Amino acid sequence: MSNTGLGKNLSELYELYCENGGQVTTDSRTVAAQAASHDGVGPVFFALKGENFDGNDYAVQAIADGAAAAVVQGRLPRGVEAESEEAARYIVVKDTLAALQELAAHHRETLGLPVIALTGSNGKTTTKELTARILRTKYRVACTEGNLNNHIGVPLTLLSIREDDDAAIVEMGANHRGEIAALCALAKPDIGLITNVGRAHLEGFGGPEGVRLGKGELYDYLAAHGGTAFYSADDPVLAGMVSERFGKSEGTALGYTAADLGISAVSGTEGDRLVLALSGGGETATGMTGGYNLSNVAAAMAVGRYFGIGAAEALAAVASYVPDNNRSQVAVSARGTGNTLYMDAYNANPSSMAAALDNFLALPVAGERVAILGDMRELGDFAAAEHRAVVGRLAAWPGIRCYLVGPEFGAVVSGTENERRAYPSAEALAEALKSGEIVIRDAHVLVKGSRGIALEKLYPLL
Questions:
Q1: Which stretches make up the Mur ligase central domain (predicted)?
Q2: What integer is the mean pLDDT of 84-111?
Q3: Is 122 annotated as a binding residue?
Q4: Domain tally for the chain?
Q5: Shared domain check, 145 and 177
Q6: N vs C: which end of the chain shows fewer Cβ within 10 Å?
């Protein structure tokens, strides 16, 4: 955040940001539409630079499309003279990403409202959405949109907070140690929640212990700055992490359980949907599949309770959540195949794969079950063992038909009887479905894999 070259321009840029309705963008293609929707007042365009692109190349077009200003890196864009009137529309900084982060941190400090940070190996986006819905029953809440949870997304989330918001929820993702700490330095959370610590991004974190330390950076920040950490008291890993950090710190750690919140999962009443019972009576059907989502609901309700929202009101908000973006979605085929799809192909790691399979195999539904599983990415030296473990888990359920997709699964089943059901890519499996080599009808179908495998391409065929 320091040494951006922004210097005295920070106050000038912040004033401009406020005057244009708090609009910023890193995508020049959105400038015209944003300006049109704000009576001609455009956003501040940040010309980020990456390995394969240079935002400076798009800055002139962004200004032409209505950007209020363009923050450019190192130099004025080609063709813009330093002493020209046009040059006044550009702010030259040493590092545009650092400038974006500095502006976001300044905005967060200026507003001074409570910031709730969420991270975890699995379930953080679902928990974020549930928490936002619960808190919005009583408050105005800004929240991370989609999956904008990295070093670019978090600043954009902070800059989306408005003066009349009561609180903000910031999702934080990471695949290396140090990333959560850096995001905390930007967002300065007052409250934090780690959903769980699983076997995700093992390559970047260097193994399971690296994951625990990396995710624990959120607890580190809260303990050092007198913040409040929520944790599932049923999770021994999280309980241990809290004990290590909060025993003698000025921070506060609040444990919760589903039972203590007065909720439990009811099996069988809605087939493939998660149904929750309230201890005082009554059941609430959710739009989510998966008993594992009970922990996500409990986390969101614990935060809601802290902010004075009762269990019944919170559950009503939970019921309004309909998953999207390939997370815990259930869909019945509208194309006559008779299939029910369990779409969970946004991401996958060994922990989420095990949870999805266990839930799928335990569903109280009749009919054939088919699992289409894609590679789990970013596992490094752990990849072969973890993919082999999934194949072993499937072997315990001989009644399930399974298709494996991707080179990692292909490598571990090579030369075995499972090899004939392994496909190198989603496209290859799609061709088998189109040709009739594989027919899946009137079945319950789990589709689970890492985003890079693109299993969502199979949905129209299923």
A1: 119-303
A2: 92
A3: yes
A4: 3
A5: yes
A6: N
* Cα–Cα nearest to 292, from 448, 459, 180: 448
145 and 281 share a domain? yes
User: The domain that contains 354 carries what CATH number?
Assistant: 3.90.190.20
Q: Most confidently modeled of 100-109, 248-257, 321-330?
A: 100-109
Burial class (CB in 10 A: 0-12, 13-18, 19+), 84: exposed
Identify the weakest region by mean pLDDT among 6-15, 110-119, 307-316, 393-402: 6-15
Ramachandran angles phi, psi of 110, nearest 5°: -65, -40
**Residues 395-447: pLDDT tens digits?**
887 788 999 999 999 999 888 878 789 999 999 999 999 999 999 999 999 99
Burial of 260 (0-12, 13-18, 19+ CB in 10 A): middle
pLDDT level of residue 337 (50, 70, 90 thresholds)? confident
Is 125 known as a binding-site position? yes
Per the structure, the complete domain to which residue 50 belongs is given by 9-95
pLDDT of 269 reads: 45
* pLDDT above 50: residue 270: no
Which amino acid, one-letter code, is at 1? M
Asked whether 194 and 156 are in contact (CB, 8 A), the reply is no
Q: Reduce the DSSP state of residue 176 to 3 states and report it.
A: coil
Instruction: Tell whether 420 is covered by a domain.
Output: yes
Task: Give the contacts of 72 (CB within 8 A, at least 6 positions apart).
Answer: 47, 55, 56, 59, 90, 91, 92, 93, 96
340 is in an annotated binding site: no
What would the two tokens of residue 66 be?
A: 């209505």
pLDDT above 70 covers a percentage of the chain that reads 95
pTM of the model: 0.87
- In the predicted structure, residue 358 carries a pLDDT above the cut 90: no
138 appears as a binding residue in the annotation: no
Last-in-domain residue among 319, 346, 361: 319
261 and 217, same structural domain? Answer: yes
Report whether 120 belongs to an annotated binding site: yes
